């Protein structure tokens, strides 16, 4: 489908029209400020023309954003590995341009009327890997990796107040992160692990049993992997394959809980491998050996 | 950490102050409109007091939202299983109240000055399972399951325009969904599967090899599951466990690709099992047998 008007400069009101400083001229006075955005950074004069072309392209893309009457668009920061929505702010033209050049999620503070980079106080930057515009071009995702908890309260994300839970369970206060399925499961398994300290009356849950019995857990992981394979080997239906993969995932995550490993770490490994063609490279190496 | 001022009614300007109709009095005139929100629906008069208390609680929670000068807050719809950000709109008091009662993601259209429920035209509703408020109480996540593609263009989500890719690869138009790591990997494997039709010159990639060799793929899945188990049995370090789990996941996903199964289906199974204590129940049943 066509992406509308990328090269048509739209007439927009911008509260703080800016020249974009390209290449990277973003300075925040921190020694640990990563310069990993170097794919866009080049200093030699022979690249001057390329710089100009890039700057022009950035201006064109920014022109295509439908800034609101205050020159702002909604900007949502999302964890590239877990998918967690970390925070939401607003960005003006300069904030997006700064994010493009610095690769640190940068917003416009409406209360302080100033640009701010998440992490400039806490050091918990959000390292942006890609910026997405929505179909209407008035909403932006900063897809990136946070250096630490994003919320100023110390919470991993800013979304920890579940409205329906509050209404249904009549609790006045509750801190429950907005977790998607995989991380909700991880959280459940982690809770069962904590509960191992407490003697259980009655029949132990399956999760408790595999968490407290290494032999049982490992035999289940091998068994479920085998069952997953047999869905292919014995041409079982696709729903059976989905179900067996769910079993593999669940039991594997119980093992991770035993080892104190988060799924986010597993996904980070996969991201790094694939961005470096690492699995391909590793396997080819293995098969050559 | 404390959730601020849940019970303190804040002075807010609301563009369309509303009485909330509780229980479920949301009607959209569609026969397929789910009434699964029945946990909040009760008709008997003996529950009248409970209804009133619930209505009062909803009003209190809505009072705690920091509506902007137009009576709006940002509302982000997120896929509960994949974590994908589906769309972003704005919600007023009435839109959130409607979402609470109908469990269908509902927004306020600024251009049409009217409430709208995503799916009322396309039938692709977003079935909301939980609503989260952020720390500042001016941003909302509708965490739910979409019935189909969310974007009016037919795209799965509204975010498919990658800004940095556009800048770096000099492509004027590109359609690339904002995918987090797991789904980016899934997409890569799916591409390799498509490429199986085309004869490859040179050494085939590992992904291509396992996709085209069922025996090799299954032997790798069993091998990686075994290696994962051994990180526990032989007390290997936690990074080794993360790495082996990454291998299990990657090879398992290659098998899913062969079977035409999406990770989203696997996660949906896990969500249903855990919300129904299904795994617990299934395992207990198995162990009794």
TrEMBL record, chains A, B:
GO terms for biological process: L-histidine biosynthetic process. Gene3D superfamilies: MazG-like (1.10.287.1080), Phosphoribosyl-AMP cyclohydrolase (3.10.20.810). It comes from the Eukaryota. The keyword ATP-binding applies. Pathway: Amino-acid biosynthesis; L-histidine biosynthesis; L-histidine from 5-phospho-alpha-D-ribose 1-diphosphate: step 3/9; Amino-acid biosynthesis; L-histidine biosynthesis; L-histidine from 5-phospho-alpha-D-ribose 1-diphosphate: step 2/9. Residues 218-245 form a coiled coil. GO terms for molecular function: ATP binding; phosphoribosyl-AMP cyclohydrolase activity; phosphoribosyl-ATP diphosphatase activity. Residues 87-160 form the Phosphoribosyl-AMP cyclohydrolase domain. It catalyses: 1-(5-phospho-beta-D-ribosyl)-ATP + H2O = 1-(5-phospho-beta-D-ribosyl)-5'-AMP + diphosphate + H(+); 1-(5-phospho-beta-D-ribosyl)-5'-AMP + H2O = 1-(5-phospho-beta-D-ribosyl)-5-[(5-phospho-beta-D-ribosylamino)methylideneamino]imidazole-4-carboxamide. Pfam families: PRA-CH (PF01502), PRA-PH (PF01503). Keywords: Amino-acid biosynthesis, ATP-binding, Coiled coil, Histidine biosynthesis, Hydrolase, Multifunctional enzyme, Nucleotide-binding. This is Histidine biosynthesis bifunctional protein hisIE. It comes from Pyrus ussuriensis x Pyrus communis.
């Amino acid at each position: 489908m066509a992406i509308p008007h990328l090269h048509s400069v739209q007439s927009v009101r911008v509260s703080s029209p800016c020249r974009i400083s390209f290449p990277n001229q973003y300075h925040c006075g921190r020694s640990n400020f990563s310069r990993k955005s170097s794919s866009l950074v080049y200093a030699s004069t022979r690249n001057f023309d390329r710089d100009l072309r890039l700057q022009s392209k950035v201006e064109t893309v920014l022109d295509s954003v439908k800034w609101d009457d205050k020159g702002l668009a909604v900007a949502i920061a999302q964890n590239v590995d877990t998918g967690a929505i970390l925070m939401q702010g607003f960005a003006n033209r300069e904030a997006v341009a700064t994010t493009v050049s610095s690769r640190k999620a940068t917003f416009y503070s409406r209360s302080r009327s100033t640009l701010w980079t998440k992490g400039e106080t806490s050091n918990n930057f959000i390292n942006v890997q890609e910026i997405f515009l929505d179909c209407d071009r008035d909403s932006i995702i900063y897809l990136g990796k946070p250096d630490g908890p994003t919320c100023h309260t110390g919470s991993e994300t800013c979304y920890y107040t579940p409205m329906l839970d509050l209404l249904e369970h009549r609790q006045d206060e509750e801190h429950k992160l907005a977790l998607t399925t995989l991380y909700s499961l991880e959280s459940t398994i982690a809770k069962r692990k904590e509960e191992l300290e407490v003697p259980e009356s009655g029949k132990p849950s399956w999760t408790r049993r595999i968490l407290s019995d290494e032999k049982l857990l490992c035999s289940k992981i091998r068994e479920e992997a085998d069952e997953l394979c047999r869905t292919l080997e014995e041409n079982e239906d696709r729903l059976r394959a989905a179900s067996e993969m769910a079993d593999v995932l669940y039991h594997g995550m119980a093992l991770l809980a035993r080892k104190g490993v988060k799924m986010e770490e597993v996904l980070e490994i996969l991201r790094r491998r694939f961005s470096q063609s690492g699995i391909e490279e590793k396997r080819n190496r293995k098969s050559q050996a």
